[in-house]
Amino acid sequence: MDSAENPVRFTGIKLGPPKTVAAGIPAVVSSMRHILEEMNAFRGMKALLELNQKDGFDCPGCAWPDPDDERSGIAEYCENGAKAVAEEATTKKLTPDFFAQYPIAALGQLTDYEIGKKGRIAQPMYLAAGETHYKPIAWADAYKIIAGHLHRLSSPDEAVFYTSGRTSNEAAFLYQLMVREYGTNNLPDCSNMCHESSGVALSESVGIGKGSVTLEDVHEAEVIIILGQNPGTNHPRMLTALQKAKANGATIISVNPLPETGLMNFLNPQTVKGMLQIKTHLTDIFLQVKINGDMALIKAIALLLLQEEEKMPGSVFDQDFIAASTQGYENYIAHLKTQSLPQLMADCGVAPELIREAAQALFHKKKIVACWAMGLTQHKNAVATIQEVVNLLLLKGSIGKPGAGTCPVRGHSNVQGDRTMGIYEQPAPAFLDKIKTVYGFEPPREHGYDVVNAIKAMHSGRARVFIAMGGNFLSATPDTLFTAEALRNCDLTVHVSTKLNRSHVVHGKEALILPCLGRSDKDFQQQEQQFVTCENSMGVIQMSKGNLTPVSTHMKSEPAIICELAIALFGEDTRMPWAKYMQHYDHIRNDIEKVIPGFDDYNKRVRHPGGFYLPNGAREGRFNTYSGKANFNIAPVQTTPLAIDEYMMMTIRSHDQFNTTIYGLDDRYRGVYHERRVIFMHPGDIAAAGFHPGDMVDLYNYHGGKERVAYGFIIVSYQIPEKCTATYFPETNVLVPVDSVADKSNTPTSKLVVIKIKSTIINK
Ligand SMILES: Nc1nc2c(c(=O)[nH]1)N[C@H]1C(S)=C(S)[C@@H](COP(=O)(O)OP(=O)(O)OC[C@H]3O[C@@H](n4cnc5c(=O)[nH]c(N)nc54)[C@H](O)[C@@H]3O)O[C@H]1N2
Ligand SMILES: Nc1nc2c(c(=O)[nH]1)N[C@H]1C(S)=C(S)[C@@H](COP(=O)(O)OP(=O)(O)OC[C@H]3O[C@@H](n4cnc5c(=O)[nH]c(N)nc54)[C@H](O)[C@@H]3O)O[C@H]1N2
Ligand code: SF4
Ligand SMILES: [Mo]
């Protein structure tokens, strides 16, 4: 097995019934267990007490916002936030002895779970060409190697600079400045695989690539539609917001191929009611769509709304809003009228009576919030589907007013902030103009590589140096073996990382691992403790200040690493005061304020407890599109033809992982314990194919005439629509074709991979 892949090693599956209620006491127990496995109780409590507090550190987990008002004094976090902290704040560390003991080939034989449990990277490590082991290296020598490679390239466009979404605003701003002064826009980021489709869709529809709602809007909404999202696992504190909305009378409609536990019922462990086992029922109407059935479903609902509106004009649609603030209404209505309701209902796979019930719930409501995540964004027609959701909101006038709007729920804790800071391969001309005015150099104008194009460029030799500010590029991206070839083709691969991962094992001819501080670590520069800032999913900028002593004195902060690298790279030949930036991060924020709109008085306002909101036109009903109005967009329903032995596969997260970081082997809510190599299938499909639950199978994809195989998965019978299957990423990323991407956003179609399932033949 290639060390790019997770080795096939079964861990002893145990199955139980899927849970019917999320959180509660088991969540508290799980939090504590994960913390205590990684550190002593004192360090653990110290970390948890400051997690998400106004003067503490921002949760390294997801991007769900903290409440603007009062925060709980003891537990402003969820189970998965605690796990994220446990993973980062662990006292286990990887000394040079560890790397001396393990040849890289041996590290490749570990599963992602085993790799992650090894601990924090504690010292810069270097792999020389042709060597089998990483060896310690001094920081200054590491920078020299990188600068040497970058200087030797025949064009700056032969280097790729990736960013994952944990990078702070300060580090992200400096990173893109360094990269642009060096001369390229090759700044792919995890967003390219995540909410890129939302950004593209929303920019076209409503003139801003971010969501429009605040937490307060979610609390006040009359109807909340949640599509393609599993908040119980991936944004657990969203359940608290949904609970509040329910208490205010909201109806919740969930659209998902799986009856996810967190969407159904919630026991809030932070309330007396929760402790007394009094659960809140969350979803009122569950629409179990087929994979990618969302477009057909939304159109069916819109058609039912139209029929009701036509009975009594003005009673369902917000005609004043449509007339004043939108464009394309007539064409959209004309398009809807060409659609066949029975066909749409059949295409989405949801029972007609449930679709009618959902439409009825919307008839006379004006305050609607639509939330979504990867179940919508990672499809070929993702942009169009998200725009169809926006069409629905526009019909109802449900944007730019309290209690209503768009809520793409972001993944990484600062993925939205990184974009705001200019981590983008297609920067706006206005942004580049501003850099030019402020710093006096001409930034490159040509668009750079996104993730998929970066992989292809490295594969074909057009890019030769790969540098990553965080993340796990190899395992997070599609077509693992192709991406592995791409990385191995590079002259140099560099990772600024907190933890060891598979991308360190699948490397270029030379490789560097540079250990950085995480959110929970204290960051001192010039004897003064620094803080950084982040932007959450709702556009709030807040400070984050770690409170734990770093486990090694050799680690540096991300801003310091970038500044020192820039000094090594540019010497005197630079327009930026790199040495000053790393002395005190206020200097970085002062410059962010000069370049990026919305950050006036940054240093002052961000010190205000709770931070500040960035301006957001759509939130205020101003649409910064080419027409100055919100746009209805029209796109056809797309279905995926399947042969009798083909299935659609979505790659999803278990409850015990953060992307490629595997916290544990249980998916408690779905009732799968101690095993990740599973494939969820409909019982009818299992029987029709002649399989049985528990059978071991291999999964195949043949996109573009190439065979891709993921070996060794156990069939789990599950309540999932026919012809739909689910597996966990990253194990099945070997099957996601690198050139199967979303239109316009170029996001890999990780939620719809066409597969064949074949019995595993032992000893093949
Ligand atoms: N604990 C934890 N928290 C996380 C993460 C993590 O890995 N672990 N990851 C973070 C990141 S980077 C992100 S982007 C978010 C991801 O958050 P989610 O988007 O919630 O993550 P996924 O597991 O990819 O889940 C997608 C959901 O969409 C559903 N789905 C799949 N295909 C379709 C479809 O075609 N239509 C519909 N309607 N639904 C579909 C799946 O059943 C699943 O419930 O979470 C963030 N938070
Ligand atoms: N098949 C499939 N593939 C997917 C997805 C899917 O749903 N299905 N989801 C996609 C999505 S939404 C995303 S966002 C991407 C995620 O892609 P990435 O962001 O590249 O992956 P992560 O697993 O989040 O990265 C984890 C690594 O980041 C490093 N790290 C953690 N904290 C820090 C820090 O503070 N600083 C630095 N410098 N490094 C740190 C650690 O070394 C850790 O091993 O994966 C995508 N891939
Ligand atoms: S909801 Fe997200 S940000 Fe909040 S504590 Fe949980 S993991 Fe952290
Ligand atoms: Mo993400």
TrEMBL record:
Q: Which Pfam families match?
A: Molybdopterin, Molydop_binding
Cite the Gene3D superfamilies for this sequence: 3.40.50.740, Dimethylsulfoxide Reductase, domain 2 (3.40.228.10)
| InterPro entries attached to this UniProt entry | Asp_de-COase-like_dom_sf, MopB_CT_YdeP, MoPterin_dinucl-bd_dom, Mopterin_OxRdtase, Mopterin_OxRdtse_a_bac, Prok_molybdopt-oxidoreductase, YdeP_MopB
| Protein family membership | Belongs to the prokaryotic molybdopterin-containing oxidoreductase family.
PANTHER family attached to this UniProt entry:
PROTEIN YDEP (PTHR43105:SF4), RESPIRATORY NITRATE REDUCTASE (PTHR43105)
Q: Which residues form the Molybdopterin dinucleotide-binding domain?
A: 648-752
Q: Which organism is it from?
A: Chitinophaga arvensicola
Extract the NCBIfam families matched here: Fdhalpha-like
**Which Gene Ontology cellular component terms are annotated?**
membrane
| Residue ranges of domain Molybdopterin oxidoreductase in the record | 120-496
From the Swiss-Prot or TrEMBL record, give the protein name: Oxidoreductase alpha (Molybdopterin) subunit
Keywords assigned by UniProt, alphabetized: 4Fe-4S, Iron, Iron-sulfur, Metal-binding, Molybdenum, Oxidoreductase
Any one Gene Ontology molecular-function term assigned to this protein's record: molybdenum ion binding
| GO BP | cellular respiration
